[in-house]
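Interim report, section 4.2 (structural modelling).
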Amino acid sequence: MSEIKHPLPYASWESRGFWEGAGRGDLVLQQCRKCGLVQHRPRGLCAHCLESDNLQHFVASGKGEVYTFTVTEQNQAKGFAEACPYVMAYVTLEEGPRILTVITDCAPDEVSVGAPVSASFVAQDRDDGERFAVPVFRLD
Amino acid sequence: MSPAAFPASAAIAGVYEHPSRFSPNKTEFQIMAECAKGALDDAGLTRSDVDGLFGASMSMGLMGIVDLAEYLDLRPDYMDGTNIGGSSFVAHVTHAAAAIHAGLCEVALILYGSTAASNSMAIGTGGSGGSRNPDTAFSSPYGMTTVGSYAMYANLHMNTYGTTSEQLAEIAVTMRRHASLNPHAKMRSPISTEDVLGSRMISRPLHLLDCCIISDGGGAIVLTSAERARDLPKPPVRILGCGEAVQHQGVGRTDLLTIAAKQSGQNAFDMAQVQRSDIDFAMIYDSFTITVLATLENLGFCEPGEGGNFVSQGGISLDGILPVNPDGGGLSSNHPGMRGIFLVIEAVKQLRQECGERQVSNPEIALAHGTGGTIGDKHSGATLILGVDK
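Predicted structure of the assembly:
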């Protein structure tokens, strides 16, 4: 078992805020100033107002709890096959949205539904000088 | 007599399931064309009667339905290449019935074909390498697999309601017992609960035998007006109710345990004006054991959290209160990537009482529900309630 080699995230102009934030060590979410909606996954506008003018990015606490998880014992995809078993999970963030992630730096058996977790960041090598990272979570 | 109302104005006149489970020397379209012949023969119609074409597959692209029309040298008046995953063909029946009702076509042909097995396609565990598709940009960095998504649903269900692996295994055991009565099923040797629990873990809590098989295969369905169907050789199967729905992560607040079946099923029951207890058997998309349990609960055949007891008390067995998948389902008969078409085909054959050893006793009303995509991420649901012509 080795560490997961996360594929380089594909950042569009709509999701750059999230991935660039992760590169700085911040978990970045979007909120609409007009209706108050905190949304994930990111979009170029508020999914409810359908307007982009009032959308802002903010740094979330990075705290949450495990909503559900699975211990992946088989995945043929490169970067993950060698890392099995690994824990894939949904984490409910303090700010509301649930985020798909992996729970790292623990034995799979230590993870439970409802366990408190905090964001951590796995840096990505890029050849264009930008700093990207994949947010993962660790048990508190 | 006034014209029949939707959806009773259209009926299923013919069906065909490709008997092969492994077809390394055929193409997808070739399998579809062979199925077209089978279903048209079954309906007592010919290729030249077809004026509506419906289809989807694992590899049909942007203009796939146009490619398919060319392959068959058809020039239909109406076409629909809707692809909402494995449930597509259940939805196609609704779309075809609507088109027939509106007078946009008179004979609709719905097709599916796949060479998933002979292509060695890793459907459940091959996902999530580096994807440049913005759609999967937030799942591919985390190693999301199809089975992993269903496993997260299963784990949440277990934590919420105390559902057990033994209860899920009972679903696989039942499907295999049904498959043993189906001469075309791929896996026919009986299995036990211990076999399921002892099989390799793929994504906790789902074992290898909690997962559907991978096969080649295909199928076809022919619909026409209820009036015309009555003059054709096979007894028409009527459409009593239908519904479609989608469930996804939304903006991040989704209750994972509520799947599309809840919405599409309620709409279908409301339209059909029948009760859950009126359903004589159900065809339920069984990509994984947990899919059956989730669908039973969301369709309202039992309360949320009661699915485990429902299946462990023999509820879905051929002699149970709601026989599910008499053909053996995707867990044991066939699963060529997208299985929805077989749900409808088997429902029709059962309602026509053509199923030999696996025949449900004198069924009059059936439900078919397809799930497309993954219930732990995003998916579609399509429900049909079908009945014998009275």
